[in-house]
Amino acid sequence: MTPPNGFTRRRLLTLAAGVSAALVFDSAVGRDSSTIPGGKTMLTRAIPSSNEPLPVVGLGTYRGFDVATSSAAYKQLGPVIDALFAAGGSVIDSSPMYGRAERTTGELLSIHEPRSPAFLATKVWTRGRNEGIEQMEESFRLLQTDRIDLMQIHNLLDWKTHLPTLREWKAQGRIRYIGISHYTSSAYAEVEAVLESEPLDFLQINYALDDREAEKRLLPLCREKGVAVICNRPFGGGGLLSRLKDKPLPGWAAQVEVNSWPQLLLKFLLAHSAVTCVIPGTGNPRYMADNVGAGFGPMLTDAQRHQLIALVD
Q1: Interatomic CA distance for residues 162 and 230, integer angstroms
Q2: What are the backbone dihedrals phi and psi of residue 212, each rounded to the nearest 5 degrees, phi first?
Q3: Model pTM score
Q4: What SS3 class is residue 42?
Q5: Exposed, middle or buried by CB within 10 Å (0-12, 13-18, 19+), for 78?
Q6: In whole angstroms, how far apart are CA 3 and each of 20, 100, 184, 201, 267?
Q7: Any idea what DSSP says for residue 249?
Q8: Which residue, among 85, 1, 53, has the nearest Cα to 287 in the 3D structure?
Q9: Are 230 and 203 in contact (CB under 8 A)?
Q10: Cβ contacts of 251-257, under 8 Å, gap ≥ 24
Q11: If pLDDT is split at 50, 70 and 90, which confidence band does 238 have?
């Protein structure tokens, strides 16, 4: 896809390597910044349960990292991670259900120089206490780490069984944060009930310009309960970018330092005060360099968000 206004993803990769973005504070969304060598800054949001700053744009590994080491696609993944880190990002999200993604992530991070700044998130997705422990131990092995930053109970599968183990491992320091995830709106009532009844650090949930069901109850509840929100599938089901690619960006896009539709779609999500981080998935370093651009510059106003909603509705 070629973004409007003459910006290509290749050019954005070059810009990402040298951009020096000014921090713009916005108390409505708790804005802060994470400065990295070279003077570049990426917006951060505080994890409510700890106040630890977390860069707002991360990386999802579904599909993109489920590749063989001998493939051409695998050779692109080191530069993907480099593009994330170069912009000040850190969150890398994976899962045992993503095929080879955990193993690939661990392999690439183990050889990364300088030392990887990754905030590692993965999931438990099985039934039974012992089965859950076995699966999580395997995640530690595949990710080649002795500490995982965030462990999530995927799709709430057997969550009442796994949650005590997660709390125990958090107390031991093996995992730093615990959370739940889901991607089916029909399960949102159950997600809401768990958020109401259990103290959690994170929720990972679907949220996109054309998939705003989470705005109704889950995002306000997370804000009320002090739960960080990671946005899964931030480009919707895949058709959203195709629908928008031939449309010009809004005239105000330059005001929020946006050069492409992917950046604008991510900034739409980040403008919501409950959102902590977005994790667009990709195995393409040029796309990663474009995506991280959403973590710089001003956020969208309410009027700008409503204009985008009207565009897709």
Answers
A1: 20
A2: -110, 20
A3: 0.87
A4: strand
A5: middle
A6: 21, 31, 30, 36, 15
A7: P
A8: 1
A9: yes
A10: 252/304, 253/5, 254/5, 255/298, 256/297, 256/298, 256/299, 256/300, 256/304, 257/21, 257/293, 257/296, 257/297, 257/298
A11: low
Distance CA 172, CA 174 (A): 6
Nearest-angstrom CA–CA distance, 133 and 125: 11
At 132, the amino acid letter reads G
Tokens 């667009």 sit on residue: 280
**Could you tell me the sign of the dihedral formed by the alpha carbons of 58, 262, 95, 112, in that order?**
negative
Residue 5, C-beta contacts closer than 8 angstroms, at least 6 positions apart? 249, 253, 254, 259
Integer Cα distance of 108 and 112 in angstroms: 6
pLDDT in tens, 253-272: 999 999 999 999 999 999 99
- DSSP-assigned letter for residue 23: P
Q: Position of tokens 């969550």? A: 159
**DSSP secondary structure code for residue 19 in this structure:** -
Give the total residue count for the chain. Answer: 313
Number of H helices, E strands in the chain: 12, 11
CA distances to 209, 259, 261, 294, 307 from 253, in Å: 16, 7, 10, 11, 12
Distance (Å, rounded) from C-alpha 98 to C-alpha 62? 5
Q: pLDDT (tens digit, 9 = 90+) per residue, 22-80?
A: 332 233 333 444 444 445 689 999 999 999 999 999 999 999 999 999 999 999 999 99
Computed over every residue of the chain, the mean pLDDT equals 88
Nearest to 231 by CA among 249, 215, 250, 216: 215
The 10s digit of each residue's pLDDT in 96-123 is: 999 999 999 999 999 988 778 999 999 9
